Amino acid sequence: MTQTPGQHEDARLSDLGYRQELSRVLSKFDSFAVAFTYLSPMVGIYSLFVLGVGAGGPRYVWLMPIPVIGMYFVAMVFAELGSHYPVSGALYQYSKFSVGPRYGWWVGWFYSVALLVTMAAVDTGVVPYVATLLNSWFGMSLDPSNHTTILVMTIALLAVQSFLNITGAKVMGRVASFGAYVEMFGTFGIAIILAAAGFHHGFGFLFTTQGAETAATNPLGVDFGGNWWTGAAFVAVLAHVFIFYGFESAGDVAEETVDATRQVPRAMRQALIAGAVTSFVLVCALLLATPADHAGYMKATSFAGGVPYILEQSISSSLLRDILLLAVIFAFFSCGSSIQGASARMLFAYARDGQTPMSGFISKVSSKHRTPVNALLVGATIPVVFTLLVNVTPTQDIHIGFFTYPANVSALTALVSFGVSGIYVAFALTVLGALIARLRGWKPQGHYQLGRKGMAVNIIALAYLVIMFINLALPSGLTSPRGALFNLDWVTLVVVGLLAVAGVVVRLLAPGTRVRR
User: What letter does residue 446 receive in the DSSP assignment?
Assistant: First the structure.
């Protein structure tokens, strides 16, 4: 008899050593939406627009194809792996089956921590927008930089996200699907609104640097010594690098996706392409809407202004501004919800293999909702702990051996600086694992296969990840643009090292008795 997609996926899951415990209810669009809302162009651009344009000027928009193309090669590798291994845990599972359980464990460790750090960054990042809306609507005087305000709002947000995710994968899919529509409105919609209000520059403005390569005219006060291509571009491109990932989360929810071997590879690639198109449109619109006068431009491209200032100057209707603010808030919410869903499936997959302390507790699946309920709760608790690190903010530089921890930088900021670097470490190890498997003679059997081009695609993807990780983490001094704006000199690499040590401790505490090969 011909198998239905669900029966085929269940049989494939059994071949990999697992039984179907989760509810396979996510449609093709749900799978795409989870990946797309995690990538979240709105969250990324609202968070990083100033860093990009401040470091590189309007011309920075043309650096976007570099991470998009590089990550598309990565997405093709992941798509092939996801089609062959349609099982929760994505990168952990891909690496475990490609190389071995120990190798997979370390991939999963860095990826899990990076997911939880990113979740904390997203949920704390929405606080200023929520505070602005509440202050406007109810006459409150909430200070978004107040530690108590940040903690209370983050806990409230995580509670709502956890409740919805525990209720069922279908609810997670619906939140993500609505979030995807909001993202479309918040990117194309804002671009159309800004165009209707009237751009302040012509298209040629997008090819200018506006003096970003010199300290005297750089909105952020950083100095590239007059060099754009060999200076500013290397740092400005990181504003795009921090956006284009998250598409791999479609693989994390593979066990809940209908016809996963077909849909997961499509969702990964489509989420990346959709994210690239919407991001490019929104960034261009924001750049063209920056004030024409020098003072206005400098404020719009500095931390004192940014995207809210551009919208305020361009849109006179307070009602429309509030609608856009609501769209931004929901984009952050759906992004955090998708990340929590992905991180919980990662923790569940880990625990199901006995690779975490308290694995029996973490791997428990709700009999009512068929969701990894305890993994979701753990995945909500850890970001709260990370959020408390905002209280650890030294008032003076701290000199520790060969590096300096800068004053007025919270421990949460230092941890967040690791987030994308951790993602790139996990991605690079996974792609390396796929390359090792190919050299050992691995033949993919999923619906999506790279065929003869697989080796070339694999090598290009690995080369991109290694080069960009170096650009992300390279210590260049706290006073350098990279050190001041992104990696805090040696701090990011030190955090990677400390997390590796923590990983050794966690691995020693894990029972590790149920690893499948």
Answer: S
Q: Give the whole-angstrom CA distance, residue 414 versus residue 390.
A: 10
DSSP state letters, 238-306: HHHHTTS--TTHHHHTGGGBTTHHHHHHHHHHHHHHHHHHHHHHHHHHHHHHS-SSHHHHHHHTSTTSH
Per CATH, which fold does 5-351+366-509 belong to? Answer: Amino acid/polyamine transporter I (1.20.1740)
**In DSSP terms, which residues pair with 404 in a beta bridge?**
399
Burial 137-175 (b: 16+ CB within 10 A, else e): eeeeebebeeeebbbebbeebbeebbebbbbbbbbbbeb
pLDDT at 76: 98
Question: What are the tokens at 305?
Answer: 């202004």
pLDDT tens for residues 202-254?
Answer: 999 999 999 999 999 999 999 999 999 999 999 999 999 999 999 999 999 99
Residues whose CB is less than 8 angstroms from the CB of residue 368 and which lie 6 or more positions away in sequence, other chains included? none
Task: Give me the residue label for tokens 């860093």.
Answer: 51
Helix axes of 147-167 and 127-138: crossing angle, nearest 10 degrees = 100
Length of the chain: 517
Q: What pLDDT is recorded for position 517?
A: 44
Average pLDDT taken over every residue of the chain: 92
**pLDDT score at 512:** 63
* Segment 370-373 long-range contacts (CB within 8 Å, at least 24 positions apart): 370/21, 370/22, 370/23, 370/168, 370/169, 371/22, 371/23, 371/165, 371/166, 371/167, 371/168, 371/169, 371/344, 372/22, 372/344, 372/345, 372/347, 372/348, 373/166
Q: Are 514 and 352 in contact (CB under 8 A)?
A: yes
Residue 285 CB neighbours (<10 A): 20
Query: Helix crossing, 318-352 with 147-167: angle to 10°?
Result: 60
Quote the CA–CA distance of 172 and 483 in Å, as a whole number.
37
How far apart, in whole angstroms, are the C-alpha atoms of residue 283 and residue 186?
A: 12
SS3 442: coil
Percent helix, strand and coil across the chain, each to the nearest 5? 70, 0, 25
Of 39-48, 106-115, 264-273, 414-423, give the lowest mean pLDDT range.
414-423
Q: What is the pLDDT of residues 294-351, one digit of tens each?
A: 999 999 999 999 999 999 899 888 888 889 889 999 999 999 999 999 999 999 999 9
Q: Are 266 and 251 in contact, with CB atoms under 8 Å apart? A: no
pTM for this entry? 0.93
Query: How far is residue 52's CA from residue 236's CA, in Å, rounded to a whole number?
Result: 5
Bridge partners of residue 399, in order along the sequence? 404
Q: Which residue has the higher pLDDT, 443 or 9?
A: 443
How sure is the predictor about 5, in pLDDT bands with cuts at 50, 70 and 90? low
State mean pLDDT over 57-86: 97
